[in-house]
Design brief:
Mean pLDDT: 76
GO cellular component, one term: plasma membrane
Helix content: 55-70%
Radius of gyration: 35 Å
GO molecular function: ABC-type oligopeptide transporter activity; ATP binding; ATP hydrolysis activity
Main location: membrane
Strand order of the largest sheet: 6-7-8-3-9-10
Number of strands: 10
Membrane topology: Multi-pass membrane protein
Shape: elongated
Strand content: 5-15%
Pfam families: ABC_membrane (PF00664), ABC_tran (PF00005)
CATH superfamily of one domain: P-loop containing nucleotide triphosphate hydrolases
Length: about 625
């Protein structure tokens, strides 16, 4: 099992998923949960061997560091006064060697800890992305794309310093503090007590600063997510077209400027939070050597025991060696409290429940005939919430024989698209069953279901990549010959071949370098390459002009030959030849039959045909 999956297993908490809420807004993170620290520590568990090595390097570095003041004391109290040149040389070389060894250990610590930290960040990114890939479609209909991107980029990126250096810094500084305090006690316990009197105050100040920065960080990340969402929406091709054609470019710029100004204020607050208090700690620590010299002088004048110059200098050196890691330790504590807000936002995504899951023992369809059956199907967007819309689909009983075709028509909101989404399990039924070759789709493994069902929708999506790469998304190992054959079947090969770069032509953002009909035929070619036995056409030609529709329809006719086809129709001219036509009204089947039978019935379908005839020059014949 990949570590990304282990992260998901560690973080998953089962909670009901709501489908009826307004645009999804994350709950306010609660960084104080004790379990959260344990979850963070578990992220480092696979790398405990490397972290143990870092710990050994840290301990060795701390021991080497505290040795230098003792060597200095011997130089001042013995080697120089006694004119012992050999001893002086040896002690000086010892101090130089200690510095060299410390530097080497420091580089190794940085290398190992940075590698571990980057691996942890990689695991988090992969786990969050994988989690989002398995979220139900309803989640993405309520969540802004920029918010999702911000979680992966800004939040995980903001934790870089914490996960790459905090663990090492914590262990290193803690070890240095302990070793230094022991060394100071060995030199003079009275001066040690004086040096440590203010440490509790420093700890209290750092905790206050950490809490303050943590709150600001949570606000800052939300603001960054809002800006990311605004950029994603307004600077896409669609956003630019809408802004310019509506004359709102200046307004969008002003909105972004206001959001950016809010972020400036939060960044300044985050940077300055507790800065004066932490500066006070720095001033006090800088003044402590003077306090030690003063205390030693007062003690001597009062008749106390004399402290040698070597001991006093060595002690002050140790004291400075104590204060540096102490300040760093306090700063690390502040950074960790700040990072808890970021971890909370990441764990919030990792904790999102997944409604549509693969069964423990899934059925694998090796060969698919293509029979599709709706057996007493009901569907509500949230069956558990009384406030959610009811009756989205009710009592749907339909069978599409293998290789047969069924068209579904009806007014807007009648449940046509929802019905089509149940076959590939973009949603799960709340009652009844959807079966392929007699097997409930909820019992199928995801790979079998994905191979069995292909979807071509009105909303064609193409990646910002070459034509060939977009087609190979359906079949990564497709040969050039297979790609060309699929494009020919989709009536788009001649157009591609006429382009200067042919199949290497970049399609642009969401395929905007191509017309609607060309994009639709590219989508058809992609589906042809995948060769699914069951095909769903969700209003695939409704946005096209009549001439383009005829070209695309010709490609569709080639694609549907021999396949089980479920067509969601907007223009009735595209479905009159279907084996069976179903009219949905309010989520229920109102009528069904062939084109001729429904016209003779002179009911809802006949009314739709008459309406269609008024709107289109192409009139379906009886």
């Amino acid at each position: 099992m990949s570590y990304a999956r282990k992260v998901r297993a560690v973080c998953h908490q089962k909670e009901p998923m709501r489908h009826d809420t307004p645009p999804w807004t994350p709950a306010t993170p609660d960084p104080e949960r004790p379990a959260q620290v344990r979850r963070i520590l578990r992220l480092f568990r696979p790398y405990r061997g490397r972290l143990a090595l870092v710990g050994l390097l840290v301990a060795a570095s701390a021991l080497v560091s505290v040795a230098s003041p003792f060597l200095l004391r011997e130089i001042l109290d013995d080697a120089i006064p006694g004119r012992r040149t050999g001893l002086l040389t040896l002690l000086a070389l010892g101090m130089i060697a200690a510095a060299v060894v410390n530097s080497v250990f420091g580089v190794l610590q940085t290398l190992i800890s940075t590698t571990v930290g980057q691996r942890v960040m990689h695991d988090l990114r992969a786990a969050v992305y994988d989690r989002l890939q398995r979220m139900p479609l309803a989640f993405f209909t309520r969540t802004r794309t920029g918010e999702v991107q911000s979680r992966i980029a800004n939040d995980i990126g903001g934790m870089q310093a914490t996960v790459t250096s905090t663990a090492t810094s914590l262990v290193s500084n803690l070890t240095s503090v302990v070793a230094t305090v022991v060394a100071m006690l060995a030199l003079d316990w009275r001066l040690t007590v004086v040096s440590l009197l203010l440490l509790p105050l420093f700890v209290w100040i750092s905790r206050r600063v950490g809490n303050e920065r943590k709150k600001i960080t949570s606000q800052r990340q939300k603001q960054m997510a809002a800006m990311s969402a605004m950029v994603t929406e307004s600077l896409s091709v669609s956003g630019i077209l809408l802004g310019r054609t509506m004359g709102r470019s200046d307004s969008l710029t002003q909105d972004f400027t206001r959001e950016s100004e809010r972020l400036v204020g939060l960044e300044v607050r985050a940077s300055m939070a507790g800065r004066w208090r932490m500066s006070t700690i720095g001033v006090v620590m800088a003044a402590m050597p003077a306090v030690i010299y003063w205390a030693a002088g007062i003690a001597l004048q009062a008749g106390g025991p004399a402290v040698s110059i070597g001991t006093l200098v060595a002690f002050v050196s140790l004291q400075q060696g104590l204060f540096r890691p102490t300040v760093s330790l306090l700063s690390t504590g502040v950074d960790m409290q700040t990072s808890l807000a970021l971890f909370a936002r990441i764990f919030e995504y990792l904790d999102l429940p997944i409604d549509i899951t693969e069964p423990a023992r899934p059925v694998r369809l090796e060969t698919v005939r293509g029979e599709v059956r709706f057996d007493g199907v009901d569907f509500d967007y949230d069956a558990k919430d009384p406030a959610s819309p009811k009756g989205t689909l009710r009592g749907i009983d339909l069978t599409i024989p293998a290789g047969g075709s069924l068209a579904v028509v009806g007014s807007t909101g009648s449940g046509k698209t929802t019905l089509s989404y149940l076959v590939p399990r973009l949603y799960d039924v709340t009652g009844g069953r959807v079966l392929i070759d007699g097997v409930d789709v909820r019992d199928l493994d995801f790979d079998s279901l994905a191979r069995a069902v292909g979807v071509v929708s009105q909303e064609t999506y193409l990646f910002h990549a070459s034509i060939a790469d977009n087609l190979r998304f359906a079949k990564p190992d497709a040969t050039d010959a297979e790609i060309v054959a699929a494009a020919e079947a989709a009536q788009i090969h001649d157009h591609i071949a006429a382009l200067p770069e042919g199949y290497d032509t970049l399609v642009g953002e969401r395929g905007y370098r191509f017309s609607g009909g060309e994009k639709q035929r590219l989508a058809l070619a992609r589906t042809i390459l995948r060769d699914p036995p069951v095909l769903i056409l969700d209003e695939a030609t409704s946005a096209l002009d009549t001439r383009t529709e005829q070209a695309v329809q010709k490609a569709i006719d080639g694609l549907t030959a021999g396949r089980t086809t479920l067509t969601i129709a907007h223009r009735l001219s595209t479905v009159r030849d279907a084996d069976r036509i179903v009219v949905l009204d309010g989520g229920r089947i109102a009528e069904q039959g062939t084109h001729e039978e429904l016209l003779a019935l002179d009911g809802r379908y006949a009314a739709l045909v008459r309406r269609d005839a008024k709107l289109s020059p192409v009139v379906p014949a009886a």
